[in-house]
Amino acid sequence: MGKGTMTVNPYHHDRSLLSHTALAGLLVPIIAMTNAEKLIMTDSHFLMYFLARAMYPRFLITFNEQLENVSASARVGQAVDAVGQVGRPKNITGFQTHETPVLLAHSERAELATDKYIPLTNVLEGFVILTKNPDYQEDEESL
After folding, report:
1. Are the CB atoms for 124 and 61 separated by under 8 Å?
2. Is the pLDDT of residue 52 over 90?
3. Dihedral sign for Cα atoms in the order 104, 10, 6, 1
4. pLDDT confidence tier of residue 69, bands split at 50, 70 and 90
């Protein structure tokens, strides 16, 4: 939907939470399609608007505290289940580094590539507000 920037899915927040309103929004058109000639094709075409309850963005856009667009490096790769691993395990594998804004596929996850910014949320999807890391120091080799 929307040139690949939107998806219709009842799950959100890294596929860990089920939205009951989004699930109902998907069920209404599905049930209405059982008798499409009398419902959808005639006078009840507005039932398709229930799909909007299940639409979520498939991109990552980062903002600062003043809601100005910030370009940050993000690694995008296949999601890995890291439950029960010791230390600081990686949440993605086979990643590519991009500058935000970034499109995310269905099974992809994103993480920040550097410690320059701190996200205000632990899941990087949709719109994310970043704050500058006060402890961040740039390497002298990269200057």
Report:
1. no
2. no
3. positive
4. very high
